[in-house]
Each structure stands twice: as C-alpha cells, then as structure tokens.
Amino acid sequence: MFFGFLLILLILWLIIKNPDFFKNLFEAPQKNDNANKEALKILNEKFVKGEITEEEYLRKKKLLED
To answer: Please, which domain of life does this record's source organism belong to (predicted)?
Structure first.
C-alpha cells in the first residue's frame, strides 16, 4: 500500500514538474520514424551517386526498415 502511494506521488510530481512528460513519452516513436525516413533519403542519395555498392545499400536499407 505504501509503494502504491509513492507511485501516485511520483506520477503527480512528474505531471507538475513537466506537464509535457506524457505527451513526449508517446511522441518518441514518431520522432524515430522521421529519423529513419531522413536516413533512408540520405542512403538513397549515396546509392544514386555511386558512393556505396548495391550490397551495402540493400543491407543498410534492411536495417533501417526493421
């Protein structure tokens, strides 16, 4: 019971200290998706310019899409 009370106090403290805490918590995957899209764009540009081989391109693309 004591730990439940402490947990509630901790949650209330987080909300008061940082009102956007829960908003930021759920936005993290969206930011990651944007980073992956940007990385894929750069990867495509490097492949088109001939800076990386097709093997490298496919391997790195697979890593980004997983």
So the answer is: Bacteria
